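User: Earlier you gave me the apo prediction for this protein. Now I'd like the version with flavin-adenine dinucleotide bound, so I can compare the two side by side. Same sequence as before, with the ligand SMILES added.
Assistant: Got it. Here's the input I'm using:
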Amino acid sequence: MHHYDVIVVGLGTAGSATCMTLAQRGVSVLGIDAFHPPHPLGSHHGETRSIRRAYLEGTAYLPMALRAWDLWRRLEKDAGERLLVTTGNLTIGPPDGPAISGFLASARAGGIPHDWLTAADIRKRWPPLAPPGHFAAGLEIEAGIVFPETCIRVFLTMAETAGATLQFDERVTGWAAVPGGIEVRTASGRYTAGRVLIAAGARAGRLLGPAGALLTPKRIPVHWITPPDATAYQLGRFPVNFWQVPMAGNTGNPAAYREFYALPAVKPGGRVKAAFHNRLADVDPELPPLPVSTAEETAMRAVLERFLPPLSDRPIHSDTCMYTLTPDDHFLLGPLPQNGNVFAVALAGHGFKFAPVLGEILADLLEGLIPAIDVDFFSPVRFVRRE
Ligand SMILES: Cc1cc2nc3c(=O)[nH]c(=O)nc-3n(C[C@H](O)[C@H](O)[C@H](O)COP(=O)(O)OP(=O)(O)OC[C@H]3O[C@@H](n4cnc5c(N)ncnc54)[C@H](O)[C@@H]3O)c2cc1C
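And here is the structure of the complex with flavin-adenine dinucleotide:
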């Protein structure tokens, strides 16, 4: 049996980036995936992912957001591929709501160039957007989108070029501590390594033991809308727009807001992508995805009618994706409490933009190094401490 320094379970977003980084550092690494990424059965498909640095989810993400941007740009050069395009990012909602407050806190802490826009400013500049008069927006100008399928292809190609062994269509069924490290079992074989990363996305739960119970896979209906005209909704002209809208009876609790977003069409004649970001249904990731229901489409059309009215009666095509939520909606990243040689990563529905820096941080952890960016905040141990 060949022994590796590291085995990475799951070659999607976090796993492919980590394999690339480890292999480029000369670490012997085996990556295994149940399917062949990029694929539409996890959390990384669907053409676009927003990338921004004014991180409303918390200033703890700022160092990662800043570093990720630089790494994406460097990767573009190394790979000779277009991976990141700027189009601006609007965070829209009531000025005293958590999204706008979080946006401003991060933008100021990180010195990130941004503008403050009133509802009238927004309507004038982007006529498809119809915020109520008391809403405002933070505009991060140098923000945009990355292309997830291309990015994962690049990570995997570079990993293989640098010497990683990659195995596809092979499902990992479990692992166990053995002398010298960890044995990973799949449907067709057994492999050993000093350390293992479980980067299995929405299906990670059953591979993580007790920590797996912290993860909740969620179903995300994703709606692709044919816009009424070809230019106003195009990448470069139409910003990523993230909305946080108070629900009836809102008392300031973040859960009492409805969050959704729309992303620009990538190609001329392409479709706008829209989805809800919170108040999501649980999903069993092992079952084939159910088609998007009429009720789910109607819910999206209702918010479009209020906030992006020209899109509300347009043709919609829908499919689904998955988030892997944690109890506090922050990443899970670090060694498992029950075995310090097995590491977990779960990205709580907002991780793609960080892929290259996650690769760097996870590679450091798996090599036994202290990452330059402090990630203690994301450790699985935080949930154990609370008990
Ligand atoms: C609709 C949607 C929109 C999003 N928008 C954004 C956005 O705009 N910006 C952003 O930053 N993030 C966004 N995200 C979140 C981001 O895409 C995810 O956080 C990220 O892709 C998760 O990466 P991952 O590596 O954990 O999972 P994945 O990329 O899904 O990778 C997990 C891999 O593990 C493999 N696997 C699973 N089980 C096993 C097993 N037993 N054995 C072997 N392999 C296994 C899977 O096949 C898969 O390839 C969005 C997510 C969705 C669904």
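For your comparison, keep in mind: The chain is about 25% helix and 30% strand.
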